Amino acid sequence: MNLVRSALLYASQNRWMRVRAPQYGFVRRSVARFMPGEHFDDALNAARELAAQNIRALVTQLGENITSPAEAAQVRDHYLSVLERIGASGLPLEISVKLTQLGLDLGDELCFKNLIALIDRAALNPGAATVWIDMESSAYAERTLALYGRARDTYPNVGVCVQAYLYRTKADIERLIAIAATVRLVKGAYKEAATVAFPRKQDVDENFFALAQRLLSNEARQRGVRTAIATHDRALIARICDDAAQSVIARPELQFQMLYGIQAREQLRLAGEGYDSRVLINYGRHWYAWFMRRLAERPANVWFVLKNLF
Ligand code: FDA
């Protein structure tokens, strides 16, 4: 992992920076590239524009590691009202949530109850909208997958994210295939030790491709596994599209997810060529840690932030 990336990931967890950085105008202006605004309405408007271009959207209210049951309940209630508004909007919009935002640090049962309330409500929306569960640092991986498994036992409309940089993901995917899971595959965005994650990007990319092949295999699809390939890596996307064409997977069956503001042209190209192209839109006030992870993914973004200083 290079030094800049490490420094940015370290900064993402720094309390002093978390309080101060958002107060600077140039930092706020830079964030605007990655999120249309701090309010759900900003995300909804962006989702409407994307829908007009045949791109479906997912929304996330930023925030993680809440520290009281009352805060977790607030987040749950916020998402319940968001699901209500999505239902009324008629847009094919889904939500993506972090379990530590629903109280995972306060106990599995509390978090699970909040999660189930959202899945139950989402099921009433058109097409029984999926509730996507983000994957956070590796310390939460086992509990996240266990809670996902419990939810999946009862509900079909729930998906979970897995990270190609973790060694454990190869085995986790077999567990997920066995329960006909809905899976979002990403490279991974947290600072992880070499004991748990591939340190070299090249190895992460190769593992991503191998995991995608397994998730899109005949066996997995016949069991009912649904997969979203979530990356902006165009070379990897091209490789996966070629491989899927050889396995005769129809384009609309191949789902890609990207983040708002990143590789927008590629999102459009995929939609135009008949693939299922989706964009995750973030909103909310607590964007600091998330924004630092976006900078770490592409340290050239730091120059973009500095340009906004002048
Ligand atoms: P890679 O980092 O190799 O980037 C490929 C190319 O994309 C770069 O060369 C650049 O051109 C462009 N690019 C990538 N990131 C950029 C950025 N920030 N700014 C500008 N250009 C950029 N992670 C996680 O740990 N848990 C999760 O739950 C999720 N959820 C999630 C959902 C969705 C829909 C996406 C797209 C991603 C996530 N991630 C995530 C983040 C993921 O783990 C990863 O950090 C980023 O997607 C960046 O990696 P890429 O796969 O894009 O490849």
Q: Could you please describe the fold and organization of this structure?
A:
The protein is an alpha/beta fold. Strand 3 (131-133), helix 7 (141-154) and strand 4 form a beta-alpha-beta unit. It has helices at residues 3-12, 15-20, 25-31, 40-51, 69-89, 108-122, 141-154, 169-178, 201-215, 218-223, 234-246, 264-272, 288-297, 301-307, and strands spanning 56-61, 94-97, 131-133, 158-163, 182-186, 226-230, 255-259, 276-283. Helix 3 (25-31) crosses helix 14 (301-307). The chain has an eight-stranded parallel barrel, surrounded by seven helices. It has one domain: TIM Barrel (Alpha-Beta Barrel), CATH 3.20.20. The structure holds dihydroflavine-adenine dinucleotide. Dihydroflavine-adenine dinucleotide (FDA) is lined by residues 134-135, 161, 163, 186-190, 230-233, 257-259, 262-263, 280, 294, 297-298, 301.
For the report, how would you describe the main beta sheet? 8 strands, parallel, barrel
CATH architecture heading: Alpha-Beta Barrel
- Cα-to-Cα separation, first versus last residue: 30 Å
Please state the overall shape, judged from the principal axes of the Cα atoms. globular
Q: Briefly note the structural class of the backbone.
A: alpha/beta
Query: How many DSSP E strands?
Result: 8
Quaternary state reads single chain
Rounded mean pLDDT is 93
- Ligand catalogue: dihydroflavine-adenine dinucleotide
Alpha carbon gyration radius: 18 Å
